[in-house]
Amino acid sequence: MNAPFAARGTATVLPQPYLLFLGDTTEPGFAKTAFGLRDWAGEKCVGEYACGATVSTGLPRLTPAEAVAKGARGLVIGVANPGGVIPPSWRTSLVEALEAGLDIVSGMHVRLADIPEVAEAAALLGRQLIDIRVPPADIPVATGRKRSGKRLLTVGTDCALGKKYTALAIARAFEARGIDADFRATGQTGIMIAGGGMPMDAVISDFEAGAAEVLSPDGAPEHWDVIEGQGSLAHPAYAAVSLGLLHGSQPDVFVVCHEPGRTAMLGTAGYTVATIEEIIDLTTALGRRTNPNIRCGGVSFNSSALDEAEAAALMEAESNRLGLPVADPVRGGPAFDALVESCLA
């Protein structure tokens, strides 16, 4: 699922296994990158490292030298704090990691090379500083050419409600059924999980669809690319990246991701969350421009706020109402199996 790809313009293949750096983080929500890597790429994580953090992934606490001895090749900044900053309190720890023999991987907005002591140590030691949110320089304008192979894209009624987790779960389910499939990452955590990908939120708008074409090149007739969605076609701020990704990925199947109970669009006051039906209609109408045969395979719920009985009852009711399978990919079970089979039908 996490095989790197070698098409023109793809992101740097990341140094794995990882040591997860938590800095001095005290808020679990700010450590979502570390938790995502633990949950979806645990076999690539040897431990965690901190300089005062009270948050923990539950992995062994290791010094950089201990992590290298266990096979680690990269230190991943597992924090996504407000503004994407790297505070001065972290810098000694980052230099220590470089001195121990680790490259550094960051999804922050601040560039590693812009931190003098980190840049100087990396240059002296011959270590890599890898910023995930830097798109490649040679992304072409999209051609719209229909490519071989099969594609699935996760889309959402809003931002940050499970598109990555859904794509990862579906890709793994495909592989468990003996189907040749790759997860194609489009955001910082997904790229770190997969070991490669395309940071779609950092691509210039004119090249969004072209970046999606590069991300998912021609494939074997029965091969599936399961593509991580971004934003929402109904979001007043982030619809542009969603549309470029939709046109460029040319999905044969899409899955709508939704969080029951969420009413307000994330980060945009005064806008309500789109309905599932609205996103199905929008995605179908706009997706037909580059793939006339696009269809909805079902709906993925983030039901983490509900108990098991409440979630099961709601998903069954919504499945009956929509005439589509509805499942929570984290909970799994027969409902998720039905969603996967619908996508493959």
Could you write a compact summary of the structure shown?
With 345 residues, this protein is α/β, with parallel strands linked by helices. The protein has helices spanning 32-40, 64-69, 88-100, 116-125, 163-176, 188-194, 208-215, 239-249, 276-287, 308-322, 334-344; strands spanning 18-23, 45-50, 74-77, 103-106, 129-131, 150-156, 181-184, 224-227, 253-258, 295-301, 326-327.
Write a structural description.
It is a single chain. This protein has a 6-stranded parallel sheet with strand order 7-8-6-9-10-11, sandwiched between helices. It contains 11 helices and 11 strands. The chain is α/β, with parallel strands linked by helices and 345 residues long. It has 2 domains: 114 residues, NAD(P)-binding Rossmann-like Domain (Rossmann fold), CATH 3.40.50; 195 residues, 3-Layer(aba) Sandwich (Rossmann fold). Helix 1 packs parallel to helix 6 and helix 7 crosses helix 8. Strand 3, helix 3 and strand 4 form a beta-alpha-beta unit. The longest helix has 15 residues. The radius of gyration is 20 Å and the shape is globular.
